[in-house]
Design goal:
about 250 residues, mainly alpha, Serine Threonine Protein Phosphatase 5, Tetratricopeptide repeat, 2 domains, three-stranded antiparallel β-sheet, 3 strands, extended
Length: about 250
């Protein structure tokens, strides 16, 4: 028998796809385009994985089990913190919690954890897009309205305000969180340090991007060949040199 490599390869690929698709169908809300959930679970904490499958089983019995949706949403977010496919788990967490909120808009835990999911997702700093932070802020507002004595909801909202450089509101929330639970001080200070570091990195990266986009014109280069000698780019009849790649020459 001759081995028809392309045909056999296609069969194997189809079997792998169907196996992944079948596995995905065992996880309500998981999308086929995310690939195999088993692969996404690799390297995750086995205890969290076991809890995930336990809560997932409840959703297989009843996809509208609001409590199971919240529990699995929490599992999803815990998996996102260690999985190489964090984005997919964060998306699933958001879907679970959004459905839970739709089923019961007065579920404090669903709102609080939805705030955590959006805060952990971070923002698109390159385009000054704070959509995730604003969703987190709205979620924590709902959580606090439902349970005004939840210290971690004030803490979470304080981190969001701090991320958005609203230090006055952040300080007020931090004070309220510590008033309700003084033991949160270490967590609060650690995350404030993380936010400060992210701000520094974002500012530095933004400055680099701006500098890469800026250029000066090398007047001594009169054609493409001469421009190449300066390691610059000839365009629109002039030799343009990146400020970032040619520091001190502008």
């Amino acid at each position: 028998m001759t081995f028809d490599f392309p045909t056999q390869l296609m069969r194997i690929a189809a079997m792998v796809f169907l196996a992944g698709n079948a596995a995905a169908q065992q996880i309500p809300g998981w999308e086929d385009r995310w690939g195999s959930p088993q692969r996404a679970l690799q390297s995750c904490d086995p205890r969290v994985v076991r809890q995930f499958w336990h809560d997932n089983a409840a959703l297989l019995k009843n996809p509208n089990d609001e409590g199971a949706l919240v529990d699995r949403g929490v599992d999803d977010e815990r998996l996102a913190r260690t999985s190489r496919y964090a984005m997919f788990w964060s998306w699933l967490a958001a879907k679970d919690l959004e459905k839970a909120i739709h089923l019961d808009p007065k579920d404090f835990s669903a709102w609080h954890n939805y705030g955590d999911v959006n805060y952990d997702a971070g923002d698109d700093w390159t385009h000054h897009n704070h959509a995730n932070a604003l969703r987190a802020l709205d979620a924590f507002n709902h959580a606090i309205a439902l349970n005004p004595r939840s210290p971690r909801s004030y803490l979470g909202r304080g981190w969001v305000y701090y991320t958005l450089n609203d230090r006055a509101h952040a300080s007020a929330d931090f004070q309220k969180a510590l008033q309700l639970d003084p033991s949160l001080r270490a967590d609060m200070q650690k995350e404030i340090g993380n936010i400060d570091e992210r701000h520094r990195q974002e500012d530095a990266a933004r400055g680099t991007v701006q500098k890469l986009a800026s250029y000066f014109v090398e007047k001594n280069a009169r054609n493409e060949g001469e421009c190449a000698q300066y390691k610059c780019y000839w365009t629109q009849g002039e030799c343009r040199c990146s400020n970032a790649l040619n520091p001190g020459r502008e």
